């Protein structure tokens, strides 16, 4: 059994180990036992006197594409880790679109991780065009900043600060400045404001030093 303490009314994601199916069984029951349950009426939220616990929005199984290294040509990785600020995906990765893009990682996936190696491309720019600037925030704290002219370099290593708590999620936000479209950069006629083309992310901890 696994025990989870919920201390917020905000939407959260919880990851749990898959149950071991009994041999020959077509299915295995997952039982939720809840304590400290009160009704919306008792909380003064409505007249509903039912004892309500969790509002389960969705259940997903995690398989190929959801462990490091992450390949963002993989639809599973894109669907599970990327939130707002991303363009229509390409077979080899996905562009950021606009001034902000967000990624969310399950807390357990980064439990022993202190660095992320991010592989990406950028659109070519001439010497007269302002370079793309990318500010990285992890859990609301600025942890890195890149100024990118026209060439693609080696993977960018993003240091992860120690988590503030044992929460179920960690958030990485990319804030982009001087974002231009391929049309503005005379690459092609695409009018979308594209920043980084994210290809993959690898993870490293102290044991990888």
Layout: helices, strands, pairs:
Blueprint: E1 70-71, H1 75-81, E2 94-97, E3 100-106, E4 115-122, E5 132-138, E6 141-148, E7 156-159, E8 169-177, E9 194-204
Antiparallel strand pairs: 1-9, 2-9, 3-8, 4-7, 4-9, 5-6, 5-8
Task: Explain what the structure shows.
The protein starts with 69 loop residues before the first strand and ends in a 5-residue tail after the last strand. Helix content is 3%, strand content 29%. The chain has 209 residues and is mainly β. The protein is built from one helix and nine strands, in the order E-H-E-E-E-E-E-E-E-E. Strands 1, 2, 4, 7 and 9 form a five-stranded antiparallel sheet that branches. It has one helix at 75-81; strands spanning 70-71, 94-97, 100-106, 115-122, 132-138, 141-148, 156-159, 169-177, 194-204.
Q: Quick summary of this structure?
A:
This protein has 209 residues and is mainly beta. The protein has one helix and nine strands, in the order βαββββββββ.
